[in-house]
Amino acid sequence: MNLRQFNLYIESLYEKYNQQKAILKEIEEEIEKERHNLMEVSKEKEALESLKEKKYEEYKYQTVIEQNLMIDEQISYKTARSTLGG
């Protein structure tokens, strides 16, 4: 009788071990899936930061062009004014 109980106990432990092993496998798969998602989000973030940086550089370039045009207009205005005797 004791041997039968001991055998049932060992079988129940083995079953619990297999259940825990299956749970662990599921958790590891979930972790791997989340790790993959994190990598994808990191790539998207990097791409957006790069785009943001390009847009900022483009904005700075356009600002310089606009400032140069305004300076040219002021110089043209002063030149025209001085030429016309103003």
Terminal-residue CA separation: 122 Å
- The pLDDT mean sits at 94
Helix proportion range: over 70%
Number of strands: 0
Provide a count of the helices: 1
Radius of gyration: 37 Å
N-to-C SSE string, H for helix and E for strand: H
Short description:
It is built from 1 helix and no strands. By secondary structure, it is an all-alpha fold.
What does this structure look like?
This protein starts with a helix and ends with a helix. It is mainly α. The longest helix is centred in the middle third of the chain and has 82 residues, at 2-83. It has one helix and no strands. The model has no long low-confidence stretch (mean pLDDT 94).
Task: Give the topology.
Layout: H1 2-83
Keywords:
single chain; 86 residues; mainly alpha
